[in-house]
């Protein structure tokens, strides 16, 4: 059985509320931009597949809520992440 990708990386977007984490994710994953502010509740994620050196890389990018009340939810995602974008 051959997977659709050669590598899978889980990345987290973390930062304070309202700094643009969701906008960054939408631009990178969907090439879209939304001018209205919609607060992330808990966590959200998007997938983008890229090609590099004839390898298919699947990026699973998680958008975490910046509000203090969701910090415990977001911190549970840290242990399996390959990278964090602040």
UniProtKB/TrEMBL annotation:
UniProt-listed Gene3D superfamilies: P-loop containing nucleotide triphosphate hydrolases (3.40.50.300)
Keyword terms of this UniProt record: GTP-binding, Nucleotide-binding
Matches recorded under SMART domains: RAB (SM00175)
Matching Pfam families: Ras
Regions annotated as coiled coil: none
Membership in a protein family: Belongs to the small GTPase superfamily. Rab family.
Name the UniProt record assigns to this protein: Small GTPase superfamily, Rab type
Species name: Parasponia andersonii (Sponia andersonii)
């Amino acid at each position: 059985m051959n997977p659709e990708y050669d590598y899978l990386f889980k990345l987290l977007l973390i930062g304070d509320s309202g700094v643009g984490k969701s906008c960054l994710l939408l631009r990178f994953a969907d090439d879209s931009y939304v001018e209205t502010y919609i607060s992330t509740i808990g966590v959200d994620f998007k997938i983008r597949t890229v090609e590099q050196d004839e390898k298919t890389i699947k990026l699973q990018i998680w958008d975490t809520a910046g509000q203090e009340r969701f910090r415990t939810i977001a911190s549970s995602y840290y242990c399996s992440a390959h990278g964090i974008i602040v």
